[in-house]
Amino acid sequence: MALGIFAGIATAPAAAQGPGTSVYFSFVSSKDAAERGGLQVLPDTVYTRERGYGFVSPVAQIAKEATGSICSDSKPFSFAVNLPEGNYNVNVLLGDEGHASITTLKVEARRLILKQLHAAAGRFEGRRFTVNVRRSQLASGETVRLKRDEQSHPDWDDELTMEFSGARPCVQALEISKTDSAVTVYLAGDSTVTDQAKEPWTSWGQMLPAFFKQGVAVANHAESGESLKSFVGERRLQKILDTIKAGDYLFIQFAHNDQKPGASHVDPFTSYQETLRFYVDESRKRKAIPVLVTSMHRRKFDDQGRIVNTLSDYPEAMRRLAREESVPLMDLNAMSKTLFEALGPEGTLKAFVHYPAGTFSGQDQELKDDTHFNDYGAYELAQCVVAGIRANRLGIVKYLAGDVPAFDPNHPDPPATWSLTASQSTTEAKPGNH
Q: Strand, coil or helix: what is 32?
């Protein structure tokens, strides 16, 4: 039977879960749910705090097929489960008995997991991945100093939210189980790394989970407007240090805001390096693996179509520190120069947030952003990061999905042939500071 990918598992209602427990959701039938010791989900199973699970998108846009699966006709729908903080292995079964389906899966704030998975009628596709769920509370009893727009951010709420989208998304079953053995890749950075909540802005950190199979969770703690100093002052680094463990990774990318005048300013070869060294030392004290990531270029070309450096000496300062401290370095700055010059001044318009007015719901002004990326640009940069993982021979290379190809930034994916279903979020807010 299609559900055979979920081998015998003890389940419990999500709201009552504790460490080491699992929950199974059947979108097919009450019989299947009973046989699995799980919970049946119907189109009108709306999320409430008391229930602890359910749909959080309008139920009118989803329907239960006669053959069992819950599907939608090209409109995204989201399902949420209340879970304690930690890493979770997720097994999902997609497809429908009577019709073909195409499903894209994102979790939390638009973190990409599956990109347009096709399943023929009567064929079911099972996928396994690991996801990180977090809270703002610290071990000290204090909390991370969240910005106002983070108060309702999916990355900081009490639920794991999964968005199913695509030409015809269909889900049959879902299994979630707590794991303490997964490797966590923590991301510390600014708006070019963060989980952007609103379309059309996207970061490479949001795209990175799609390249890993089960066993690695990406915990994206980056936030718009952050610098090395503010990331510490707002207790974001402390939140990472509270939960990071031996064998985990801390990817560190800062420069865009650190170069600006003001309280967060640091000089490249002195205070910038000193603060980076603090991040490196603190992660190593916990036997985690720090990785330095040079910041990507902005979209600025000279008359010959070459990228102009707007980041001063910060990338070079990070390179030197990496050599001095024997820290793995991902030179995203160098790779992005190659990538952007390969696309050219016109081609990069397809990678950055450049859209005429009216492209998105609620967008009444033209968008011309030469710092932040759309889905395509973020995906290409994430491929550069994956290339850096391979080049540095990091241990997590063994967790890269089997279908992840080698990537050469000299030869990016053609923008005209690349697509990704937009999320339900709109352009209500810009990403703020860099």
A: helix
DSSP per-residue codes, 203-257: -HHHHGGGGB-TTEEEEE---TT--HHHHHHTTHHHHHHHH--TT-EEEEE--TT
Do 172 and 27 form a contact (C-beta atoms < 8 A)? yes
Whether the bond between 409 and the residue before it is cis, its omega within 30 degrees of 0, is: no
Token pair 């379309």 is found at 199
Residue 349, both tokens: 């318009």
281 by Cβ neighbours in 10 Å (0-12 / 13-18 / 19+) ranks as exposed
pLDDT value at position 64? 74
- Written as six digits, the tokens of 410 are 């000299």
First-last CA distance in the chain: 49
Strands 289-293 and 329-330: parallel
DSSP-assigned states of every residue in 89-121: EEEEEEE-SSS-EEEEEEETTTEEEEEEEEE-T
Residues 6+ apart with CB under 8 A from 419: 116
Between CA 389 and CA 384 the distance in angstroms is 9
| Average predicted confidence (pLDDT) for the chain | 91
Q: DSSP letter string over 322-365? A: HHHHT--EE-HHHHHHHHHHHHHHHHGGGTEEEE-TTSSTT--S
In one letter, which amino acid is 44? D
pLDDT category at 62 given cuts 50, 70, 90 is confident
The answer to whether 266 and 312 are in contact (CB under 8 A) is no
What radius of gyration do the chain's Cα atoms show? 21
Any residues with CB less than 8 A from the CB of 89 and at least 6 apart, and which?
128, 129, 130, 176, 177, 178, 179, 182, 214
pLDDT digits 0-9 by tens, 8-51:
333 444 443 443 478 999 998 788 788 888 999 998 999 999 99
Q: Put residue 287 in one of left, alpha, beta given phi > 0 → left and psi -120 to 50 → alpha.
A: left
C-beta atoms surrounding 49 within 10 Å: 9
pTM of the model: 0.93
Bridging pattern class, strands 101-107 and 111-119: antiparallel
**Distances in whole angstroms, Cα of residue 80 to Cα of each of 64, 106, 160, 260, 278:** 18, 12, 5, 39, 37
Residue type at 214 in one-letter notation: Q
